[in-house]
Design goal:
It is built from 9 helices and 16 strands. With about 350 residues, it is of the alpha+beta class. It has 3 domains: about 80 residues, Alpha-D-Glucose-1,6-Bisphosphate, subunit A, domain 3 (Alpha-D-Glucose-1,6-Bisphosphate, Chain A, domain 3, 3-Layer(aba) Sandwich), CATH 3.40.120; about 120 residues, Alpha-D-Glucose-1,6-Bisphosphate, subunit A, domain 3 (Alpha-D-Glucose-1,6-Bisphosphate, Chain A, domain 3, 3-Layer(aba) Sandwich); about 140 residues, TATA-Binding Protein (2-Layer Sandwich). It has a 6-stranded antiparallel β-sheet. It has a 4-stranded mixed β-sheet with strand order 1-2-3-4, sandwiched between helices. The protein has a 4-stranded mixed β-sheet with strand order 6-5-7-8, with helices on both faces. The radius of gyration is 21 Å and the shape is globular. This is phosphoglucomutase (alpha-D-glucose-1,6-bisphosphate-dependent). Its EC number is 5.4.2.2.
Length: about 350
């Protein structure tokens, strides 16, 4: 097989020389293998569009079977299939889920709560259980550890950023190990006589029609910023519970001991909250459930992140408009939040 590695001038070049070459792979055409802390070609990040675009071009130019993109320290990865399709975010989680569920039917898969409704369907259609949890790769991995201790078989934990861990690999967030699992599956498919590439495993994964991320800075003295962010997020929860946003309700994910927006443990030993966040599912009479809104406090910066995802045209705009008028304005939260990104989105 020919496999292109894009190390992004981080530390991942070893995977080309010390793993793939020694196993007999053809790695001609690999990119940016020499470590360089100035990162002259692109950000070493499987979410980076330039990184994915360069890898895609190399895969297509050399008719390679797979492209691999590592982040700086190789704890995150993404891939490109032989048709040049980037596989990261929800698509990477789906690919890993398909592989893991073949080996461990019925296992629970933990992800952060920004994954799509389509990914949940993809996992459950294959007999798996999907546990949505707090954003933050340590949160996701620690939830998997906890579930296993509580007797819930959980073999895969992944965040949309590309961080992922497997029970069989001692719950380490190891991007190289993830890629090895993908390559093993490619070899297995080839030995079984399949002419399809690795991308065929996720060909029935539906893509969300719309996704939008916005930020709201907390306008406050730095020492009060965290408390103000918590105040706004808790006010959002109260608005949902009071029914002030028609068709909006806190999301949950069934029996994984997670409720109240998939973000608060209700088992006997709840995990500490490092950043407050909730997810709401949104419905209307015409479309039924068509999207979700995720609101979370940044751990590192004085701001609040908003993620909207919709399965219908104009759904994100409709949700953002309702959030703006019926929550931010109606609640008075706009008085200490910079809501300019939200206003620009809904008015432009």
């Amino acid at each position: 097989m020919q496999i292109i590695v894009n190390a992004g001038n981080g530390s991942g070049g070893f995977f080309t020389f010390e793993v793939l070459d020694k196993l007999g792979a053809d790695t001609f055409g690999s990119l940016h293998l020499k470590p360089d802390g100035m990162f002259p070609n692109h950000i070493p990040n499987p979410e980076d569009k330039t990184a994915m675009s360069q890898t895609r071009s190399a895969v297509l130019q050399h008719n390679a079977d797979l492209g691999i993109v590592f982040d700086t320290d190789v704890d995150r990865s993404g891939v490109v299939d032989r048709e040049g399709n980037p596989i990261n975010g929800d698509r990477l989680i789906a690919l890993m889920s398909a592989i893991v569920l073949k080996q461990h039917p019925g296992t629970t898969i933990v992800t952060d709560a920004r994954t799509s409704l389509a990914l949940t369907k993809f996992i459950t259609d294959r007999g798996g259980q999907h546990c949505l949890y707090r954003v933050g790769y340590r949160n996701v991995i620690d939830k998997g550890v906890q579930l296993n201790k509580d007797g819930v078989e959980t073999h895969l934990m992944m965040e949309t950023s590309g961080h992922g861990a497997l029970k069989e690999n001692h719950f380490l967030d190891d991007g190289a190990y993830m890629v090895v699992k993908i390559i093993i599956e490619m070899v297995r498919m080839k030995l079984e006589g399949s002419n399809e590439g690795i991308g065929s495993l996720i060909k029935d994964l539906e893509e969300p029609l719309e996704s939008v991320e916005l930020r709201m800075n907390v306008v406050s003295e730095p020492k009060y910023a965290k408390a103000k962010a918590v105040e706004a997020i808790e006010a959002f929860r109260e608005y949902l519970e009071q029914g002030s946003l028609h068709g909006w309700e806190l999301d949950s994910c069934g029996e994984c001991w997670v409720s109240e927006g998939c973000l608060v443990d209700t088992n006997d030993t709840p995990a500490a909250i490092d950043a407050l966040m909730y997810r709401a599912k949104v419905s209307d009479n015409e479309h039924g459930e068509y999207g979700w809104v995720h609101i979370r406090q940044s751990i590192h910066n004085p701001n609040i992140a908003l993620n909207f995802q919709s399965t219908i045209p104009g759904g994100c705009l409709a949700m953002a408009s309702a959030f703006h008028q019926k929550f931010l304005r109606a609640s008075g939260m706009y008085e200490f939040l910079d809501i300019s990104q939200v206003e620009n989105y809904v008015t432009n």
